[in-house]
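Predict the 3D structure for this chain.
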Amino acid sequence: MAGLRLTRESILDGTLHASVRALLGPGARFATDTERAAQVRTILARAPRPGRIWVFAFGSLIWNPAIHFVERRTARIYGFHRQFCLWSRAGRGSPERPGLMLSLESGGSCTGVAYRLERRAAATELDVLWRREMFTMSYRPVWTTARTPRGPEPVIAFSANREHERYAPGLEDEVIARYLATGAGPMGRCCDYLFDTVEHLRQLGIRDRRLESLEARVRALGAIAPQALPLRPEAG
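Done. Predicted structure below.
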């Protein structure tokens, strides 16, 4: 099933969006070019320190940013934590084999990576980021503060859009692990998204005990056939 790669090129040439549209069908709601441009202008206008634009990465942006940046630091934000709470039915999942993706949920803290954008290229790079993260509008971009080894910095973070149909709150770890173990789509297996995230966090010296526990559960479920798992109505 895999074959589509998430790259800067596939984002900009429309390949990524075309694949998502084909899987989700004509009934799915996507951001328009006008909406995307307006959101980028708004987030820049709200920058706490104009000209100093950072982006916080908590999942695949850590190991596959697809944006150009001039500085990278480990960073910790407060008031949010990582959570598998978004259905994936068009990337590392499909309507037949849905998976789950990470977002930021309220409460706790989260350690990841912060990228600083070059001031003159900030609007261009945020447009690329919005094409990637905000295509289906399942995230809610917010400004927050990241604690870094060289001091605090304002960062853009992508929290869960709780009004979106992809939002899957309150799933138990056993359920999450089963969808991660069996989800697959044009971008590959959902379990690899988990494994890559955990591995790159480890390389940075970041330990996320819950993700590591999920990794162990998913590896233990590796031999389960997708047909053995009944789909929840939200994942249809």
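Confidence is low (pLDDT under 50) at residues 230-236.
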